[in-house]
Amino acid sequence: MSETRAGFVALIGEPNAGKSTLLNRMVGAKVSIVTHKVQTTRARIRGVAMEGQSQLVFVDTPGLFRPRRRLDRAMVAAAWGGAADADVVVLMIEAHRGITDGVRAIIDSLEERATGQRVALAINKIDRVKSDVLLALTKDLNELYAFSETFMISAEKGHGVQDLRVWLAGEVPEGPFLYPEDQIADLPMRMIAAETTREKLTLRLHQELPYQLTVETEKWEERKDGSAKIDQLIYVMRDGHKGIVLGNNGETIKAVGKAAREELEEFLGRKVHLFLQVKVRPNWLEESERYDEMGLNFRDGNS
Fold this sequence. Notes:
Elements: E1 5-13, H1 19-27, E2 45-51, E3 54-59, H2 70-84, E4 88-94, H3 101-113, E5 118-124, H4 131-144, E6 149-152, H5 161-171, H6 187-205, E7 213-222, E8 228-236, H7 239-246, H8 251-268, E9 272-280, H9 288-293
Parallel strand pairs: 1-3, 1-4, 4-5, 5-6, 8-9
Antiparallel strand pairs: 2-3, 7-8
Helix pairs in contact: 6-8
């Protein structure tokens, strides 16, 4: 029996280069989403794809851009952190945009940061340019950086994606699988969905409820039309907190639900029906079940 391989793949590039589309195309129906524990890194592991005897674990990296604010700097640091921890890096470029200042900045950073890693170039949206433009762009990019391989792809239409996946499968290190082979999308997706809603609540409420709420995905129903119905509970500690989460005439909870639903739809690539309910639970911080739902060890909180 052939040796198994497994490793981390970081997709990097400017915002809107097509990383999420490529990721969804790579993992297909076998999408399996897992998260690191909160303490380790901001870069999330987004999806797991199987190719032959290889397991490819894709690391999510925010789009790289010139940071202006503290949040921007944190996002860019997270992106490079994800790339640094990966076995293989794939730089995605949009064919029709060519070599922008942002692309040059990323390539300059690769010279410093990608030490000992294989870096592939994936030129995306190839259907938007003529072949002579594409060949010239490929030549210019490979003169700027010594890419291990170059792939011309359309993440949206699937062109060239299988070639890239097969190459990645041969590049990750030999070793046992990092996640169960049949881990598809149930519990991890429930956790990601809960985390998405919690993040939207945090962004909306800022410092009003820093650690005093949690979100659980109570039910996840796959519907015949391909959509998903997701029921979530938001636990708060006091009645006053419930009012803050709901907002005037339910305005806050509606906005949070809309933002979370839109992000989940983009992530899953399908329609989502999201239903949120707020419950007061004064002692949720002391309930081990809440920690299990967040993927944390209740005992770790005893220190």
